Amino acid sequence: MIILKSTIELNNWFIENINEFGENMGFVPTMGALHKGHASLIEKASRECQIVVVSILVNPTQFNEKADLESYPRDLDNDVIVAEKAGATILFTPTPKDIYGGTPYAEPVDYGLITSTFEGLSRQGHFDGVVSVVDKLFLAVKPNRAYFGSKDLQQVAVVEKMSSERHPKIKIVSCDLIRDENGLALSSRNIRLSDAGILVAQNISQELQIVAERVKEGRDVIDSVEIAKQNLKNVEGLELEYISGVNDQTFSISTENRGWSHIIIAARVEGVRLIDNIEL
Ligand code: AMP
């Protein structure tokens, strides 16, 4: 694996080497602090592509809270080990200034419900930043396939929409959500949780699991979500932001007992914002 620290280094490398790799380049954009969730995306990309570019960039324009940006975990030494072991060919580590060609700035985007509900509502401007950085990274890397985790379910829908409009030749590959042995969805932010916080956070996936089982048994989605909501509200140390059934293509909320694909959730534990979802 080689490390390229700027778009100029990346371009030069492509000019010298691209003929070797033809038309089969996979791309895994990340914000670093890599864990097994990221590794699973890189492994999938390396199974499906001849060359895999992994980018690490803590993108300032997608953070709506300054404290979250400042405390976002960074660990490049470990990232190098994880990315290489998972099969990355290139680790691309540009600065925000390099990728944005100056001061980072995100144009507002409006994809209707996909960008205005849930994460779009709770984190104003978040998807503007996501669209902006993924667009610029796609322009820099020019991949054939790009891999995103379904942990960030709404992000996948937003990226698919952006890509269909601006990069129709790039195939967006949605990858499975990876959990730890206790069910907690892996996230770079988990490192900021204490042992007690991790126990509290486990309630999130446990309740999602219960809702999915109830729905499988034929119970009402809205009622099942409501029960989970009440249970989570009673968990000390957990601050629920939302829990809801959604359709992962439209992010519309059905008023009936059909049309749902997932249950999504966002909650805070020890000030750390966690998201998770389960397929129905
Ligand atoms: P991030 O570094 O948090 O921006 O994530 C980079 C990519 O890894 C995104 O496509 C995420 O959805 C994906 N990812 C993060 N955590 C997980 C996980 N637990 N399982 C699967 N994919 C994940």
Number of strands: 9
Compounds present?
A: adenosine monophosphate
Computed CA radius of gyration, to the nearest angstrom: 19 Å
CATH architecture field of the largest domain = 3-Layer(aba) Sandwich
Distance between the termini: 39 Å
Order of helices and strands: EHEHEHHEHHHHEHEHHEEE
Question: At the fourth CATH level, what is the homologous superfamily of the largest domain?
Answer: HUPs
The profile of the biggest β sheet is: 6 strands, parallel
Remind me, CATH topology of the largest domain? Answer: Rossmann fold
Task: Please list the strands of the largest sheet in the order they lie side by side.
Answer: 1-4-3-2-5-6
Q: What is the averaged pLDDT score?
A: 95
What does this structure look like?
With 280 residues, this protein is an alpha/beta fold. The chain is built from eleven helices and nine strands. The chain has helices spanning 7-21, 36-48, 66-71, 76-86, 96-100, 113-116, 119-122, 126-141, 153-166, 195-216, 221-233, and strands spanning 2-4, 25-30, 51-56, 90-92, 145-149, 171-175, 238-246, 262-269, 272-279. It has a six-stranded parallel sheet with strand order 1-4-3-2-5-6, sandwiched between helices. The protein has a three-stranded antiparallel sheet with strand order 7-8-9, covered by helices on one side. It starts with a strand and ends with a strand. Bound molecules: adenosine monophosphate. Adenosine monophosphate is lined by residues 30-31, 37-38, 40-41, 148-149, 151-152, 175, 177-178, 185-188.
